[in-house]
Design a protein that fits this description.
Elements: H1 13-23, H2 39-42, E1 47-50, H3 55-67, E2 71-78, E3 81-87, E4 92-94, E5 104-110, E6 117-120, E7 136-140, E8 154-155, E9 157-158, E10 163-165, E11 180-184, E12 188-190, H4 195-200, H5 212-232, H6 241-254, H7 263-272, H8 278-293
Parallel strand pairs: 1-2
Antiparallel strand pairs: 2-3, 4-12, 5-6, 5-11, 6-10, 7-8, 7-11, 9-10
Helix pairs in contact: 5-6, 5-7, 6-7
């Protein structure tokens, strides 16, 4: 890893990294702890991140954190593959559930009716508004139909690229001119599963459906690697056929008929799983750090 040098070989990584890590941000207290990860020790944290830990330890600490509302993350890299698991508890509130700035459009006209229809002005590139059905909006700067200004957020129904339906405006004053319609994003509450439950029925999402079999095979490969380590007391030796074959046998037991196992992926994964590569660790670590910030 990036914080260690040749002179640190043979030392505890946490203790050897502590000073250099602390220098990255003087405003953060960084302490090295080499004792047991007991429940008493873990109970003082808001977030716990495990890496390079046995599955049994992940399950034990995951159950403990879930029961006490402590956010729990597992991040690991083996060879060219990495994994990341997040459990933020049963009542995790997302303050801003969407990416980017809230949608905003200039009002051209608002009809009196039930429902009222808001006509938005087009943008310079010819596009209309960017609202979606069910979005909550507020109005400001409207002249004439001033009842809309400061009104509680109302849901919209999209008619087309330039028109939105809102609630009953039949009793409002006639619209004259101006105004902005702006999206309001409300916090969302999410419920996360503990690791023990997620392992039973993993929900794997991929950008490209063609990648799903590969992702499922890697998920099983990581579990088979835990089983191999529990059985042998070590990771598979690099490029040792017998070790890779044993991991593959363990993976076959964990697979199902519904999810065909890509045996080439499992074999390749097992052959290099004892290696640590800084670029892979950096990517997985960056993703884990972003989840910690959430």
């Amino acid at each position: 890893q990036f914080l260690l040098g040749q002179s640190d070989v043979g030392q505890n990584r946490a203790e050897a990294s502590q000073q250099v890590l602390a220098e990255l941000n003087p405003g953060v207290v960084v302490e090295a702890y080499t004792g047991e990860l007991s429940e008493t020790f873990l109970a003082s944290f808001q977030v716990v991140v495990l890496t390079e830990s046995p599955l049994e330890e992940q399950l034990r600490i995951g159950d403990f954190c879930h029961a006490r509302g402590i956010c729990f993350i597992v991040a690991d890299a083996k060879g060219l593959a990495g994994q990341l698991f997040c459990d933020f508890g049963e009542h995790f509130v997302i303050d801003d559930p969407a990416e980017g700035n809230p949608v905003c459009a200039t009002v051209q006209h608002i009809s009196q009716g039930n429902p009222g229809v808001v006509t938005c002005m087009g943008t310079e590139d010819g596009r209309g508004h960017l609202f979606c059905d069910g979005d909550l909006v507020t109005f400001s700067g409207v002249e004439g139909m001033t009842e809309l200004n400061g009104l509680e957020p109302v849901p919209v129904h999209v008619l087309d690229a330039f028109r939105l339906e809102i609630g009953d405006t039949s009793s409002f004053s006639p619209y004259r001119r101006g105004g902005l319609v702006s999206e309001v994003r409300r916090p969302q509450e999410c419920s996360y599963e503990p690791l023990c439950q997620a392992l039973e029925e993993p929900k794997i999402q991929v950008a490209n459906p063609e990648e799903l079999p590969r992702s499922r095979s890697l998920h099983i490969a990581f579990r088979a690697l835990h089983a191999f380590r529990r059985e042998q007391g070590r990771l598979p030796r690099p490029r040792v056929l017998a070790d890779a074959q044993r991991v593959l046998e363990l993976a076959r037991r964990l697979g199902t008929q519904e999810d065909p196992l890509d045996e080439d992926i499992v074999h390749a994964f097992a052959s290099v799983s004892a290696g640590d590569l800084c670029p892979v660790a950096a990517v997985v670590g960056a993703l884990a750090a972003q989840e910690v910030l959430k």
